[in-house]
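Schema walkthrough. Field components (list of strings):
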Amino acid sequence: MSAPSDHSKSSPLATYFAVWAALLFGTFLTYEVAKIDLGPWNAAVALTIASTKALLVALFFMHIKGAHERLLKLVVITTIAFLIILLTLSMADYATRVWN
Amino acid sequence: MPDSQIVVETATHAEAHNPALLHHFAEPQQQRDAASLGMWIFLATEVMFFGGLFCAYLIYRTWYFADFAAASTSINAALGGANTAVLICSSLTVVLAIWAAQTSRRALMLLMLVLTMLFGLSFLGIKGIEYHDKFVEHHVPGASFSFEHQEVPSHPGQYANPRHAEIFFALYFIMTGLHALHMIVGLGIFAWLLWMAWKGHFTPEYHTPLEIGGLYWHFVDIVWIYLFPLLYLIDRHK
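Field assembly_structure (string):
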């Protein structure tokens, strides 16, 4: 076997193809669900599907799952936290301010 | 005893002279982790970079929802969906290229890198068709912009405000344009990776540039995963 013993896993290929299939299915799903009238839930469903897809890419393609370095996880969590601060505080302001 | 001492020293020496290991790192794993951490910090700045635009989009979408819905419906969602699939396939070929490098499959690694670039070029081609459509329809913000008498979806008789729709198209062009710029940079990075791979620089022990380039490519994929539903699928139901 020429395969190196890194992470002592067998072959990651099955995972890669499963994630790929799930991502394509998610794309199909978000495209079809958009045609159904769910009122305000359309945006929620679309963002949930998008976030699930993004999570799959980050965990399995960008290898956050199985990353042994805790510093890296800290960077990722901090990034998401600051993005949430940016979006929620801005929207809290715009949603509660009285405009004219 | 001096003999065994020499053997030990040559062994240490040989490891220290691993051609891929830079002298200021103790071991290859530390060097790899440092590179990966640096890339993740760069991606953090990229998240905030795109985050500002997503925030602007969110605010205007809340204010001018009906106009945004009308403008969004004028974009070809099938092309956007096709482009999402193309990028997902390119992300798969990136991880397969890294796997091929890890398992010493040179031909497969080169093939996957070429496929990644072909998917990237297809994405830009499809994007070009889309931009051309918008240009022909006068939906590019500016002096010749026109969005008159466009009905708001599921509100017959109600027309979108062209000024508000123009904001949607401005955000559409800035966000997809910035994303496309990242794709072009990505293609440059992968052309370089392909050249390095062709020259035989990547081995199962050392292929950090592939992993770092891959992180960038996947990040650009994730940005698109959010852009697609937010820009193309606001209010598609009739």
